[in-house]
């Protein structure tokens, strides 16, 4: 069984490695959405995969680091594409959530990235 919890944050960034004149090379912001998925058999006693509150506890410090910040200034996010951001979050969550199965980062209503680990 796989469950997920969704989180939001606001942040600014620019992509330094895009071609000259590309709009994403300019400073801009997004309302990001992150879905954190965990997967495990349903526990017979509790009836759940895990407490949604445990997912929240693992994510709160990361959201506090990202929310209303300039992503390019955060260590490891000097080129904060969706692909780089989702791996950055994964690397910081995998020890806290050993049954982490997927992360989806959306930077717009229609664009995002899903990562399931290496």
UniProtKB/TrEMBL annotation:
Group of enzyme by EC: lyase
Cofactor binding mode and count: Binds 1 zinc ion per subunit.
Requisite cofactors: Zn(2+)
Entry EC number(s): 4.-.-.-
Family: Belongs to the PTPS family. QueD subfamily.
UniProt xrefs under NCBIfam families: queuosine_QueD
Protein's recorded name: 6-carboxy-5,6,7,8-tetrahydropterin synthase
Organism in which the protein naturally occurs: Streptomyces varsoviensis
